[in-house]
Write a structure and sequence with these properties.
The structure is a homodimer. Chain A folds into two domains: 126 residues, 2-keto-3-deoxy-galactonokinase, substrate binding domain (Nucleotidyltransferase, domain 5, 2-Layer Sandwich); 117 residues, Nucleotidyltransferase, domain 5 (2-Layer Sandwich), CATH 3.30.420.310. Chain A has ten helices and 14 strands. Chain A is of the alpha/beta class. Chain A has a six-stranded mixed beta sheet. A five-stranded mixed beta sheet of chain A has the order 12-11-10-13-14, sandwiched between helices. At the A-B interface, strand 12, helix 4, helix 6 and helix 7 of A face strand 12, helix 4, helix 6 and helix 7 of B. Chains A, B: InterPro entries: ATPase_NBD, DGOK, DGOK_C, DGOK_N.
Protein backbone atom coordinates (compact mmCIF):
# COMPACT_ATOMS: atom_id res chain seq x y z
CA UNK A 1 0.00 0.00 0.00
CA UNK A 2 2.81 2.38 0.92
CA UNK A 3 4.56 1.51 -2.34
CA UNK A 4 1.38 2.33 -4.29
CA UNK A 5 1.16 5.69 -2.58
CA UNK A 6 4.77 6.54 -3.41
CA UNK A 7 4.47 5.57 -7.07
CA UNK A 8 0.97 6.94 -7.59
CA UNK A 9 1.15 9.65 -10.25
CA UNK A 10 -2.39 9.97 -11.49
CA UNK A 11 -5.78 8.26 -11.29
CA UNK A 12 -8.04 7.05 -14.11
CA UNK A 13 -11.78 6.46 -13.60
CA UNK A 14 -14.72 5.28 -15.67
CA UNK A 15 -17.83 6.51 -13.84
CA UNK A 16 -20.90 5.02 -15.49
CA UNK A 17 -24.60 4.99 -14.65
CA UNK A 18 -24.31 1.83 -12.54
CA UNK A 19 -20.65 1.35 -11.71
CA UNK A 20 -17.38 3.13 -10.96
CA UNK A 21 -14.03 1.66 -11.99
CA UNK A 22 -10.79 3.22 -10.78
CA UNK A 23 -7.20 2.60 -11.80
CA UNK A 24 -4.32 3.92 -9.66
CA UNK A 25 -1.57 4.70 -12.17
CA UNK A 26 2.22 4.96 -12.08
CA UNK A 27 3.93 7.52 -14.25
CA UNK A 28 5.05 4.74 -16.59
CA UNK A 29 1.45 3.91 -17.50
CA UNK A 30 1.50 0.81 -15.30
CA UNK A 31 -1.60 0.03 -13.23
CA UNK A 32 -0.66 -0.08 -9.52
CA UNK A 33 -4.09 -1.02 -8.23
CA UNK A 34 -7.72 -1.42 -9.43
CA UNK A 35 -10.87 -0.53 -7.50
CA UNK A 36 -14.50 -1.23 -8.42
CA UNK A 37 -17.64 0.02 -6.71
CA UNK A 38 -21.37 0.10 -7.47
CA UNK A 39 -21.82 3.80 -6.63
CA UNK A 40 -22.88 4.64 -10.20
CA UNK A 41 -23.98 8.10 -11.33
CA UNK A 42 -27.61 6.94 -11.25
CA UNK A 43 -27.57 6.58 -7.46
CA UNK A 44 -25.76 9.84 -6.56
CA UNK A 45 -26.58 13.53 -6.21
CA UNK A 46 -23.87 15.99 -7.40
CA UNK A 47 -22.52 16.62 -3.90
CA UNK A 48 -22.03 12.91 -3.22
CA UNK A 49 -19.45 12.29 -5.98
CA UNK A 50 -16.39 13.69 -4.20
CA UNK A 51 -17.05 11.92 -0.85
CA UNK A 52 -17.73 8.62 -2.66
CA UNK A 53 -14.50 8.94 -4.62
CA UNK A 54 -12.48 9.90 -1.52
CA UNK A 55 -13.91 6.93 0.40
CA UNK A 56 -12.30 4.67 -2.19
CA UNK A 57 -8.97 6.42 -2.87
CA UNK A 58 -8.08 8.50 0.22
CA UNK A 59 -5.90 5.83 1.83
CA UNK A 60 -3.76 5.68 -1.31
CA UNK A 61 -3.16 9.42 -1.72
CA UNK A 62 0.30 10.82 -0.97
CA UNK A 63 0.76 13.90 1.25
CA UNK A 64 2.26 17.08 -0.08
CA UNK A 65 1.40 16.70 -3.76
CA UNK A 66 -1.71 16.86 -5.87
CA UNK A 67 -2.79 13.84 -7.98
CA UNK A 68 -4.66 14.42 -11.25
CA UNK A 69 -7.84 12.35 -11.63
CA UNK A 70 -9.23 11.74 -15.13
CA UNK A 71 -12.85 10.64 -15.33
CA UNK A 72 -14.93 9.59 -18.32
CA UNK A 73 -18.56 8.54 -18.54
CA UNK A 74 -21.85 9.60 -17.02
CA UNK A 75 -20.22 11.54 -14.16
CA UNK A 76 -20.13 14.34 -16.76
CA UNK A 77 -23.86 14.19 -17.53
CA UNK A 78 -26.26 16.97 -16.52
CA UNK A 79 -27.38 14.84 -13.54
CA UNK A 80 -23.77 13.83 -12.74
CA UNK A 81 -20.94 15.38 -10.69
CA UNK A 82 -20.71 18.40 -13.00
CA UNK A 83 -21.79 18.80 -16.59
CA UNK A 84 -18.97 18.34 -19.10
CA UNK A 85 -20.60 19.80 -22.23
CA UNK A 86 -20.61 17.58 -25.32
CA UNK A 87 -18.04 18.10 -28.10
CA UNK A 88 -19.82 18.34 -31.47
CA UNK A 89 -18.85 16.01 -34.33
CA UNK A 90 -16.95 16.09 -36.61
CA UNK A 91 -14.09 16.35 -34.14
CA UNK A 92 -11.25 14.41 -32.56
CA UNK A 93 -12.41 12.58 -29.44
CA UNK A 94 -12.10 14.80 -26.34
CA UNK A 95 -8.95 14.89 -24.22
CA UNK A 96 -7.64 16.88 -21.26
CA UNK A 97 -7.68 20.15 -23.21
CA UNK A 98 -11.48 19.97 -23.58
CA UNK A 99 -12.13 18.44 -20.16
CA UNK A 100 -14.15 20.12 -17.41
CA UNK A 101 -11.97 20.79 -14.36
CA UNK A 102 -13.80 20.37 -11.04
CA UNK A 103 -13.24 22.46 -7.94
CA UNK A 104 -12.82 19.88 -5.18
CA UNK A 105 -12.92 20.34 -1.41
CA UNK A 106 -9.91 18.08 -0.93
CA UNK A 107 -6.75 19.68 -2.35
CA UNK A 108 -4.95 16.36 -2.79
CA UNK A 109 -6.86 15.69 -6.03
CA UNK A 110 -7.23 17.66 -9.24
CA UNK A 111 -10.29 16.31 -11.09
CA UNK A 112 -10.93 16.45 -14.86
CA UNK A 113 -14.14 15.11 -16.40
CA UNK A 114 -13.95 14.28 -20.10
CA UNK A 115 -16.88 15.47 -22.21
CA UNK A 116 -19.05 13.22 -24.33
CA UNK A 117 -19.77 13.84 -28.03
CA UNK A 118 -22.94 15.03 -29.75
CA UNK A 119 -24.31 15.02 -33.27
CA UNK A 120 -26.87 17.61 -34.30
CA UNK A 121 -28.75 15.63 -36.95
CA UNK A 122 -29.73 12.91 -36.67
CA UNK A 123 -29.67 13.90 -33.00
CA UNK A 124 -27.35 11.61 -31.08
CA UNK A 125 -25.09 11.57 -28.02
CA UNK A 126 -22.40 9.45 -26.39
CA UNK A 127 -20.64 9.55 -23.01
CA UNK A 128 -17.83 7.12 -22.30
CA UNK A 129 -17.50 5.55 -25.75
CA UNK A 130 -15.56 8.61 -27.01
CA UNK A 131 -12.81 7.75 -24.50
CA UNK A 132 -12.65 4.15 -25.72
CA UNK A 133 -12.40 5.50 -29.27
CA UNK A 134 -9.59 7.84 -28.19
CA UNK A 135 -7.81 4.82 -26.68
CA UNK A 136 -8.20 2.84 -29.89
CA UNK A 137 -6.96 5.75 -32.03
CA UNK A 138 -3.95 6.26 -29.75
CA UNK A 139 -2.83 2.74 -30.69
CA UNK A 140 -4.15 2.87 -34.28
CA UNK A 141 -3.69 6.48 -35.41
CA UNK A 142 -4.11 5.64 -39.10
CA UNK A 143 -7.40 3.76 -38.70
CA UNK A 144 -10.01 4.80 -41.24
CA UNK A 145 -13.38 3.08 -41.07
CA UNK A 146 -16.10 2.23 -38.59
CA UNK A 147 -15.91 1.27 -34.92
CA UNK A 148 -18.90 -0.69 -33.61
CA UNK A 149 -19.27 -0.45 -29.81
CA UNK A 150 -21.90 -3.00 -28.70
CA UNK A 151 -23.62 -2.31 -25.41
CA UNK A 152 -26.83 -1.11 -23.76
CA UNK A 153 -26.78 1.61 -26.42
CA UNK A 154 -24.72 0.24 -29.29
CA UNK A 155 -22.77 2.88 -31.26
CA UNK A 156 -21.64 2.77 -34.89
CA UNK A 157 -18.93 5.39 -35.28
CA UNK A 158 -17.42 6.56 -38.55
CA UNK A 159 -13.74 7.52 -38.12
CA UNK A 160 -11.60 9.37 -40.63
CA UNK A 161 -8.30 11.24 -40.17
CA UNK A 162 -8.44 10.68 -36.37
CA UNK A 163 -11.82 12.39 -36.20
CA UNK A 164 -15.26 11.09 -35.26
CA UNK A 165 -17.12 12.05 -38.44
CA UNK A 166 -20.61 10.78 -37.56
CA UNK A 167 -22.29 8.14 -35.41
CA UNK A 168 -25.59 6.37 -34.74
CA UNK A 169 -26.86 4.80 -31.54
CA UNK A 170 -29.17 1.75 -31.52
CA UNK A 171 -30.74 1.02 -28.13
CA UNK A 172 -30.63 -2.71 -28.92
CA UNK A 173 -29.05 -3.81 -25.62
CA UNK A 174 -31.62 -1.98 -23.53
CA UNK A 175 -34.46 -3.37 -25.67
CA UNK A 176 -33.05 -6.87 -25.18
CA UNK A 177 -33.00 -6.49 -21.39
CA UNK A 178 -36.56 -5.09 -21.29
CA UNK A 179 -38.01 -7.71 -23.64
CA UNK A 180 -36.15 -10.78 -22.34
CA UNK A 181 -36.52 -9.97 -18.65
CA UNK A 182 -39.72 -7.93 -18.30
CA UNK A 183 -42.13 -8.60 -21.18
CA UNK A 184 -44.47 -11.59 -21.60
CA UNK A 185 -41.50 -13.30 -23.32
CA UNK A 186 -39.67 -13.64 -20.01
CA UNK A 187 -41.42 -16.99 -19.47
CA UNK A 188 -39.83 -18.25 -22.70
CA UNK A 189 -36.36 -16.71 -22.47
CA UNK A 190 -35.09 -17.29 -18.91
CA UNK A 191 -31.98 -19.37 -19.53
CA UNK A 192 -28.24 -19.34 -19.00
CA UNK A 193 -27.82 -21.48 -22.12
CA UNK A 194 -27.41 -20.11 -25.62
CA UNK A 195 -28.35 -21.58 -28.98
CA UNK A 196 -25.92 -20.27 -31.59
CA UNK A 197 -27.88 -21.76 -34.52
CA UNK A 198 -31.14 -20.12 -33.38
CA UNK A 199 -29.28 -16.82 -32.98
CA UNK A 200 -27.84 -16.98 -36.51
CA UNK A 201 -31.22 -17.90 -38.02
CA UNK A 202 -32.94 -15.05 -36.17
CA UNK A 203 -30.32 -12.54 -37.38
CA UNK A 204 -30.99 -13.61 -40.98
CA UNK A 205 -34.75 -13.55 -40.43
CA UNK A 206 -34.77 -10.00 -39.03
CA UNK A 207 -32.30 -8.69 -41.63
CA UNK A 208 -34.53 -9.91 -44.45
CA UNK A 209 -37.67 -8.29 -43.00
CA UNK A 210 -36.97 -5.98 -40.04
CA UNK A 211 -40.49 -4.50 -40.14
CA UNK A 212 -42.05 -7.64 -38.66
CA UNK A 213 -39.80 -7.51 -35.57
CA UNK A 214 -42.66 -6.95 -33.04
CA UNK A 215 -44.51 -9.88 -34.57
CA UNK A 216 -41.54 -12.26 -34.70
CA UNK A 217 -40.84 -11.43 -31.06
CA UNK A 218 -44.37 -12.46 -30.03
CA UNK A 219 -43.98 -15.64 -32.06
CA UNK A 220 -41.22 -16.69 -29.62
CA UNK A 221 -43.89 -16.89 -26.90
CA UNK A 222 -46.27 -18.77 -29.18
CA UNK A 223 -43.52 -21.25 -30.24
CA UNK A 224 -42.94 -22.03 -26.57
CA UNK A 225 -46.67 -22.47 -25.83
CA UNK A 226 -47.53 -24.48 -28.93
CA UNK A 227 -44.36 -26.31 -29.89
CA UNK A 228 -42.39 -26.52 -26.63
CA UNK A 229 -39.51 -24.34 -27.86
CA UNK A 230 -36.72 -24.22 -25.23
CA UNK A 231 -35.81 -21.06 -23.36
CA UNK A 232 -32.23 -21.25 -24.66
CA UNK A 233 -33.62 -20.99 -28.20
CA UNK A 234 -36.06 -18.27 -27.13
CA UNK A 235 -33.35 -16.14 -25.56
CA UNK A 236 -31.00 -16.49 -28.54
CA UNK A 237 -33.88 -15.60 -30.89
CA UNK A 238 -34.70 -12.35 -29.03
CA UNK A 239 -31.04 -11.34 -29.29
CA UNK A 240 -30.75 -12.44 -32.92
CA UNK A 241 -33.92 -10.62 -34.01
CA UNK A 242 -32.85 -7.36 -32.34
CA UNK A 243 -29.25 -7.50 -33.61
CA UNK A 244 -30.46 -8.55 -37.08
CA UNK A 245 -32.84 -5.58 -37.26
CA UNK A 246 -30.00 -3.32 -36.11
CA UNK A 247 -27.64 -4.67 -38.80
CA UNK A 248 -30.33 -4.01 -41.42
CA UNK A 249 -30.68 -0.43 -40.15
CA UNK A 250 -26.94 0.16 -39.73
CA UNK A 251 -26.06 -1.25 -43.16
CA UNK A 252 -24.54 2.03 -44.44
CA UNK A 253 -22.15 1.83 -41.48
CA UNK A 254 -20.76 -1.63 -42.24
CA UNK A 255 -21.35 -2.51 -45.88
CA UNK A 256 -18.01 -2.29 -47.68
CA UNK A 257 -16.41 -0.67 -44.63
CA UNK A 258 -13.29 -1.37 -42.62
CA UNK A 259 -14.75 -2.39 -39.26
CA UNK A 260 -13.58 -3.16 -35.75
CA UNK A 261 -15.75 -4.18 -32.79
CA UNK A 262 -14.88 -2.56 -29.47
CA UNK A 263 -16.69 -4.07 -26.52
CA UNK A 264 -16.99 -6.71 -23.83
CA UNK A 265 -16.42 -10.37 -24.70
CA UNK A 266 -19.91 -11.91 -24.80
CA UNK A 267 -21.80 -9.20 -26.68
CA UNK A 268 -18.84 -8.53 -29.03
CA UNK A 269 -18.87 -12.21 -30.00
CA UNK A 270 -22.58 -12.01 -30.85
CA UNK A 271 -22.04 -9.00 -33.14
CA UNK A 272 -18.93 -10.65 -34.59
CA UNK A 273 -20.89 -13.83 -35.41
CA UNK A 274 -23.72 -11.80 -36.97
CA UNK A 275 -21.33 -9.76 -39.17
CA UNK A 276 -19.27 -12.82 -40.03
CA UNK A 277 -22.45 -14.45 -41.42
CA UNK A 278 -22.63 -11.43 -43.78
CA UNK A 279 -19.16 -12.31 -45.02
CA UNK A 280 -17.41 -9.72 -42.85
CA UNK A 281 -14.59 -11.05 -40.69
CA UNK A 282 -14.33 -8.35 -38.01
CA UNK A 283 -11.59 -8.08 -35.35
CA UNK A 284 -12.55 -7.26 -31.75
CA UNK A 285 -10.74 -5.20 -29.14
CA UNK A 286 -11.59 -5.25 -25.43
CA UNK A 287 -13.42 -2.18 -24.14
CA UNK A 288 -11.84 -1.99 -20.66
CA UNK A 289 -8.34 -1.84 -22.15
CA UNK A 290 -9.48 0.89 -24.56
CA UNK A 291 -11.13 2.92 -21.81
CA UNK A 292 -7.91 2.97 -19.85
CA UNK A 293 -5.88 3.73 -22.99
CA UNK A 294 -8.19 6.69 -23.71
CA UNK A 295 -7.85 8.03 -20.18
CA UNK A 296 -4.05 7.63 -20.52
CA UNK A 297 -4.12 9.62 -23.76
CA UNK A 298 -6.10 12.37 -22.06
CA UNK A 299 -3.64 12.48 -19.17
CA UNK A 300 -0.67 12.63 -21.53
CA UNK A 301 -2.28 15.54 -23.37
CA UNK A 302 -2.47 17.39 -20.04
CA UNK A 303 1.16 16.64 -19.28
CA UNK A 304 2.28 17.97 -22.66
CA UNK A 305 0.05 21.04 -22.44
CA UNK A 306 1.80 24.32 -21.63
CA UNK A 307 0.78 24.99 -17.99
CA UNK B 1 -81.09 -6.23 -6.06
CA UNK B 2 -84.00 -8.66 -5.68
CA UNK B 3 -85.19 -7.70 -9.15
CA UNK B 4 -81.76 -8.50 -10.60
CA UNK B 5 -81.81 -11.89 -8.90
CA UNK B 6 -85.25 -12.73 -10.29
CA UNK B 7 -84.40 -11.71 -13.85
CA UNK B 8 -80.84 -13.07 -13.84
CA UNK B 9 -80.61 -15.74 -16.56
CA UNK B 10 -76.92 -16.03 -17.26
CA UNK B 11 -73.61 -14.32 -16.52
CA UNK B 12 -70.95 -13.08 -18.95
CA UNK B 13 -67.35 -12.48 -17.87
CA UNK B 14 -64.11 -11.27 -19.46
CA UNK B 15 -61.32 -12.53 -17.20
CA UNK B 16 -58.04 -11.03 -18.35
CA UNK B 17 -54.51 -11.02 -16.97
CA UNK B 18 -55.11 -7.89 -14.87
CA UNK B 19 -58.87 -7.41 -14.58
CA UNK B 20 -62.20 -9.18 -14.36
CA UNK B 21 -65.37 -7.70 -15.88
CA UNK B 22 -68.74 -9.29 -15.19
CA UNK B 23 -72.16 -8.64 -16.73
CA UNK B 24 -75.31 -10.00 -15.06
CA UNK B 25 -77.66 -10.75 -17.94
CA UNK B 26 -81.42 -11.02 -18.42
CA UNK B 27 -82.78 -13.55 -20.88
CA UNK B 28 -83.56 -10.73 -23.31
CA UNK B 29 -79.86 -9.91 -23.67
CA UNK B 30 -80.24 -6.84 -21.46
CA UNK B 31 -77.48 -6.08 -18.96
CA UNK B 32 -78.96 -6.00 -15.42
CA UNK B 33 -75.75 -5.07 -13.61
CA UNK B 34 -72.01 -4.66 -14.25
CA UNK B 35 -69.18 -5.58 -11.89
CA UNK B 36 -65.44 -4.86 -12.25
CA UNK B 37 -62.58 -6.13 -10.09
CA UNK B 38 -58.79 -6.21 -10.27
CA UNK B 39 -58.46 -9.92 -9.43
CA UNK B 40 -56.90 -10.73 -12.82
CA UNK B 41 -55.62 -14.15 -13.81
CA UNK B 42 -52.05 -13.02 -13.17
CA UNK B 43 -52.67 -12.69 -9.43
CA UNK B 44 -54.59 -15.97 -8.84
CA UNK B 45 -53.83 -19.66 -8.42
CA UNK B 46 -56.31 -22.10 -10.05
CA UNK B 47 -58.19 -22.80 -6.80
CA UNK B 48 -58.77 -19.08 -6.16
CA UNK B 49 -60.90 -18.42 -9.27
CA UNK B 50 -64.20 -19.85 -7.98
CA UNK B 51 -64.04 -18.13 -4.55
CA UNK B 52 -63.10 -14.79 -6.21
CA UNK B 53 -66.01 -15.09 -8.62
CA UNK B 54 -68.46 -16.09 -5.87
CA UNK B 55 -67.35 -13.16 -3.70
CA UNK B 56 -68.55 -10.86 -6.49
CA UNK B 57 -71.74 -12.59 -7.68
CA UNK B 58 -73.07 -14.72 -4.79
CA UNK B 59 -75.48 -12.08 -3.49
CA UNK B 60 -77.14 -11.88 -6.93
CA UNK B 61 -77.65 -15.62 -7.48
CA UNK B 62 -81.19 -17.04 -7.26
CA UNK B 63 -81.96 -20.13 -5.20
CA UNK B 64 -83.27 -23.29 -6.76
CA UNK B 65 -81.85 -22.87 -10.26
CA UNK B 66 -78.43 -23.00 -11.90
CA UNK B 67 -77.06 -19.97 -13.76
CA UNK B 68 -74.72 -20.49 -16.72
CA UNK B 69 -71.52 -18.40 -16.59
CA UNK B 70 -69.61 -17.74 -19.84
CA UNK B 71 -66.01 -16.63 -19.47
CA UNK B 72 -63.51 -15.56 -22.10
CA UNK B 73 -59.86 -14.51 -21.77
CA UNK B 74 -56.85 -15.58 -19.77
CA UNK B 75 -58.91 -17.56 -17.21
CA UNK B 76 -58.60 -20.33 -19.83
CA UNK B 77 -54.79 -20.18 -20.04
CA UNK B 78 -52.56 -22.95 -18.72
CA UNK B 79 -51.92 -20.89 -15.56
CA UNK B 80 -55.60 -19.88 -15.30
CA UNK B 81 -58.70 -21.44 -13.74
CA UNK B 82 -58.59 -24.43 -16.09
CA UNK B 83 -56.97 -24.77 -19.49
CA UNK B 84 -59.37 -24.28 -22.38
CA UNK B 85 -57.29 -25.71 -25.25
CA UNK B 86 -56.81 -23.44 -28.28
CA UNK B 87 -58.93 -23.92 -31.41
CA UNK B 88 -56.68 -24.12 -34.50
CA UNK B 89 -57.22 -21.75 -37.43
CA UNK B 90 -58.76 -21.81 -39.97
CA UNK B 91 -61.96 -22.10 -37.95
CA UNK B 92 -65.01 -20.16 -36.79
CA UNK B 93 -64.32 -18.38 -33.49
CA UNK B 94 -65.08 -20.64 -30.52
CA UNK B 95 -68.53 -20.76 -28.90
CA UNK B 96 -70.24 -22.81 -26.21
CA UNK B 97 -69.92 -26.03 -28.17
CA UNK B 98 -66.12 -25.86 -27.97
CA UNK B 99 -65.97 -24.37 -24.45
CA UNK B 100 -64.40 -26.09 -21.47
CA UNK B 101 -66.99 -26.83 -18.78
CA UNK B 102 -65.70 -26.43 -15.23
CA UNK B 103 -66.73 -28.57 -12.26
CA UNK B 104 -67.56 -26.02 -9.56
CA UNK B 105 -68.03 -26.52 -5.82
CA UNK B 106 -71.08 -24.28 -5.78
CA UNK B 107 -73.99 -25.87 -7.68
CA UNK B 108 -75.70 -22.54 -8.34
CA UNK B 109 -73.32 -21.82 -11.25
CA UNK B 110 -72.46 -23.76 -14.40
CA UNK B 111 -69.17 -22.38 -15.76
CA UNK B 112 -67.97 -22.46 -19.38
CA UNK B 113 -64.56 -21.09 -20.39
CA UNK B 114 -64.20 -20.22 -24.07
CA UNK B 115 -60.98 -21.38 -25.73
CA UNK B 116 -58.50 -19.10 -27.48
CA UNK B 117 -57.25 -19.67 -31.02
CA UNK B 118 -53.86 -20.84 -32.26
CA UNK B 119 -51.98 -20.79 -35.54
CA UNK B 120 -49.29 -23.39 -36.23
CA UNK B 121 -47.05 -21.36 -38.54
CA UNK B 122 -46.11 -18.63 -38.09
CA UNK B 123 -46.73 -19.69 -34.47
CA UNK B 124 -49.31 -17.41 -32.89
CA UNK B 125 -52.00 -17.42 -30.20
CA UNK B 126 -54.91 -15.29 -28.95
CA UNK B 127 -57.16 -15.45 -25.87
CA UNK B 128 -60.03 -13.02 -25.58
CA UNK B 129 -59.84 -11.42 -29.02
CA UNK B 130 -61.57 -14.45 -30.59
CA UNK B 131 -64.66 -13.62 -28.51
CA UNK B 132 -64.65 -10.00 -29.69
CA UNK B 133 -64.36 -11.31 -33.25
CA UNK B 134 -67.31 -13.65 -32.63
CA UNK B 135 -69.29 -10.66 -31.37
CA UNK B 136 -68.44 -8.63 -34.46
CA UNK B 137 -69.33 -11.51 -36.79
CA UNK B 138 -72.65 -12.07 -35.00
CA UNK B 139 -73.64 -8.53 -36.06
CA UNK B 140 -71.79 -8.61 -39.40
CA UNK B 141 -72.06 -12.21 -40.64
CA UNK B 142 -71.10 -11.32 -44.22
CA UNK B 143 -67.91 -9.45 -43.31
CA UNK B 144 -64.95 -10.46 -45.42
CA UNK B 145 -61.64 -8.72 -44.76
CA UNK B 146 -59.32 -7.92 -41.87
CA UNK B 147 -60.06 -7.00 -38.26
CA UNK B 148 -57.30 -5.07 -36.50
CA UNK B 149 -57.50 -5.36 -32.69
CA UNK B 150 -55.07 -2.81 -31.17
CA UNK B 151 -53.85 -3.56 -27.66
CA UNK B 152 -50.93 -4.78 -25.57
CA UNK B 153 -50.58 -7.46 -28.24
CA UNK B 154 -52.20 -6.05 -31.38
CA UNK B 155 -53.83 -8.67 -33.63
CA UNK B 156 -54.40 -8.51 -37.40
CA UNK B 157 -57.03 -11.12 -38.23
CA UNK B 158 -58.02 -12.25 -41.70
CA UNK B 159 -61.73 -13.21 -41.85
CA UNK B 160 -63.46 -15.04 -44.67
CA UNK B 161 -66.78 -16.91 -44.73
CA UNK B 162 -67.22 -16.40 -40.94
CA UNK B 163 -63.89 -18.12 -40.28
CA UNK B 164 -60.64 -16.82 -38.83
CA UNK B 165 -58.32 -17.74 -41.70
CA UNK B 166 -55.01 -16.49 -40.29
CA UNK B 167 -53.67 -13.88 -37.89
CA UNK B 168 -50.52 -12.13 -36.72
CA UNK B 169 -49.74 -10.59 -33.33
CA UNK B 170 -47.45 -7.55 -32.93
CA UNK B 171 -46.40 -6.85 -29.33
CA UNK B 172 -46.42 -3.13 -30.08
CA UNK B 173 -48.46 -2.06 -27.04
CA UNK B 174 -46.24 -3.93 -24.61
CA UNK B 175 -43.10 -2.51 -26.29
CA UNK B 176 -44.56 1.00 -25.98
CA UNK B 177 -45.18 0.57 -22.24
CA UNK B 178 -41.68 -0.84 -21.63
CA UNK B 179 -39.89 1.81 -23.71
CA UNK B 180 -41.92 4.86 -22.68
CA UNK B 181 -42.11 4.00 -18.98
CA UNK B 182 -39.00 1.97 -18.18
CA UNK B 183 -36.19 2.67 -20.68
CA UNK B 184 -33.82 5.66 -20.73
CA UNK B 185 -36.49 7.39 -22.84
CA UNK B 186 -38.81 7.69 -19.82
CA UNK B 187 -37.14 11.03 -18.99
CA UNK B 188 -38.24 12.34 -22.40
CA UNK B 189 -41.72 10.80 -22.70
CA UNK B 190 -43.49 11.33 -19.36
CA UNK B 191 -46.48 13.43 -20.42
CA UNK B 192 -50.26 13.39 -20.46
CA UNK B 193 -50.22 15.57 -23.57
CA UNK B 194 -50.12 14.26 -27.10
CA UNK B 195 -48.67 15.77 -30.27
CA UNK B 196 -50.67 14.47 -33.23
CA UNK B 197 -48.29 15.98 -35.80
CA UNK B 198 -45.25 14.35 -34.23
CA UNK B 199 -47.15 11.05 -34.14
CA UNK B 200 -48.04 11.25 -37.84
CA UNK B 201 -44.47 12.17 -38.84
CA UNK B 202 -43.05 9.30 -36.78
CA UNK B 203 -45.45 6.81 -38.39
CA UNK B 204 -44.25 7.92 -41.85
CA UNK B 205 -40.63 7.85 -40.75
CA UNK B 206 -40.81 4.29 -39.40
CA UNK B 207 -42.85 3.01 -42.34
CA UNK B 208 -40.24 4.25 -44.78
CA UNK B 209 -37.35 2.62 -42.91
CA UNK B 210 -38.47 0.28 -40.13
CA UNK B 211 -34.98 -1.21 -39.72
CA UNK B 212 -33.67 1.90 -37.99
CA UNK B 213 -36.34 1.74 -35.26
CA UNK B 214 -33.90 1.14 -32.36
CA UNK B 215 -31.85 4.10 -33.57
CA UNK B 216 -34.78 6.48 -34.09
CA UNK B 217 -36.00 5.62 -30.60
CA UNK B 218 -32.67 6.63 -29.06
CA UNK B 219 -32.76 9.83 -31.09
CA UNK B 220 -35.84 10.86 -29.07
CA UNK B 221 -33.62 11.01 -25.97
CA UNK B 222 -30.93 12.93 -27.86
CA UNK B 223 -33.48 15.42 -29.27
CA UNK B 224 -34.59 16.16 -25.71
CA UNK B 225 -31.01 16.57 -24.43
CA UNK B 226 -29.70 18.64 -27.36
CA UNK B 227 -32.70 20.48 -28.75
CA UNK B 228 -35.14 20.62 -25.81
CA UNK B 229 -37.80 18.49 -27.48
CA UNK B 230 -40.93 18.34 -25.29
CA UNK B 231 -42.12 15.15 -23.61
CA UNK B 232 -45.47 15.36 -25.42
CA UNK B 233 -43.58 15.15 -28.72
CA UNK B 234 -41.31 12.42 -27.34
CA UNK B 235 -44.23 10.26 -26.22
CA UNK B 236 -46.11 10.65 -29.50
CA UNK B 237 -42.92 9.78 -31.41
CA UNK B 238 -42.37 6.53 -29.49
CA UNK B 239 -45.96 5.53 -30.29
CA UNK B 240 -45.70 6.66 -33.92
CA UNK B 241 -42.40 4.85 -34.55
CA UNK B 242 -43.71 1.58 -33.09
CA UNK B 243 -47.07 1.73 -34.88
CA UNK B 244 -45.37 2.82 -38.13
CA UNK B 245 -42.98 -0.16 -37.97
CA UNK B 246 -45.97 -2.42 -37.28
CA UNK B 247 -47.88 -1.04 -40.28
CA UNK B 248 -44.84 -1.68 -42.48
CA UNK B 249 -44.67 -5.27 -41.22
CA UNK B 250 -48.43 -5.86 -41.37
CA UNK B 251 -48.79 -4.40 -44.88
CA UNK B 252 -50.10 -7.68 -46.40
CA UNK B 253 -52.91 -7.50 -43.82
CA UNK B 254 -54.18 -4.04 -44.75
CA UNK B 255 -53.04 -3.10 -48.26
CA UNK B 256 -56.07 -3.30 -50.51
CA UNK B 257 -58.13 -4.93 -47.75
CA UNK B 258 -61.51 -4.24 -46.24
CA UNK B 259 -60.57 -3.27 -42.68
CA UNK B 260 -62.24 -2.56 -39.37
CA UNK B 261 -60.53 -1.58 -36.11
CA UNK B 262 -61.91 -3.24 -32.99
CA UNK B 263 -60.55 -1.77 -29.76
CA UNK B 264 -60.66 0.84 -27.03
CA UNK B 265 -61.07 4.50 -27.92
CA UNK B 266 -57.59 6.04 -27.51
CA UNK B 267 -55.48 3.35 -29.11
CA UNK B 268 -58.03 2.72 -31.86
CA UNK B 269 -57.86 6.41 -32.79
CA UNK B 270 -54.08 6.22 -33.09
CA UNK B 271 -54.28 3.24 -35.47
CA UNK B 272 -57.13 4.92 -37.34
CA UNK B 273 -55.06 8.09 -37.82
CA UNK B 274 -52.04 6.07 -38.98
CA UNK B 275 -54.07 4.07 -41.52
CA UNK B 276 -55.97 7.16 -42.63
CA UNK B 277 -52.62 8.78 -43.53
CA UNK B 278 -52.10 5.80 -45.85
CA UNK B 279 -55.34 6.67 -47.60
CA UNK B 280 -57.40 4.08 -45.73
CA UNK B 281 -60.52 5.40 -43.99
CA UNK B 282 -61.18 2.66 -41.42
CA UNK B 283 -64.27 2.36 -39.21
CA UNK B 284 -63.86 1.50 -35.53
CA UNK B 285 -66.04 -0.59 -33.23
CA UNK B 286 -65.75 -0.60 -29.43
CA UNK B 287 -64.13 -3.70 -27.92
CA UNK B 288 -66.22 -3.95 -24.75
CA UNK B 289 -69.48 -4.08 -26.73
CA UNK B 290 -67.98 -6.75 -28.99
CA UNK B 291 -66.75 -8.84 -26.04
CA UNK B 292 -70.24 -8.90 -24.59
CA UNK B 293 -71.77 -9.64 -28.00
CA UNK B 294 -69.36 -12.56 -28.40
CA UNK B 295 -70.23 -13.97 -24.99
CA UNK B 296 -73.95 -13.56 -25.87
CA UNK B 297 -73.40 -15.50 -29.11
CA UNK B 298 -71.68 -18.27 -27.15
CA UNK B 299 -74.55 -18.43 -24.67
CA UNK B 300 -77.15 -18.54 -27.46
CA UNK B 301 -75.27 -21.43 -29.09
CA UNK B 302 -75.58 -23.32 -25.80
CA UNK B 303 -79.30 -22.57 -25.57
CA UNK B 304 -79.91 -23.82 -29.13
CA UNK B 305 -77.74 -26.91 -28.63
CA UNK B 306 -79.62 -30.18 -28.21
CA UNK B 307 -79.24 -30.94 -24.46
Amino acid sequence: MIQTTEQLTWIAADWGTSNLRIWLMADTGDVLHRISADCGMGSLTPDQFEPELMKLIAEHLPNGRTVPVFICGMAGAKQGWAEAPYTAVPSEPPNATTATRIKTKDSRIDVYILPGMKQKAPADVMRGEETQIAGFLAANPKFDGVICLPGTHTKWVHISAREVVSFRTFMTGELFALIADQSVLRHSTASSDWDAKAFAAAVEDAMSNPATLASKLFSIRAEALLHGQSNAVGRAKVSGLLIGAELAGARPYWLGQNIVILGEDGLSSAYQAALSAQGLPVPTVPSETMTLAGLCAAYLALESKPQ
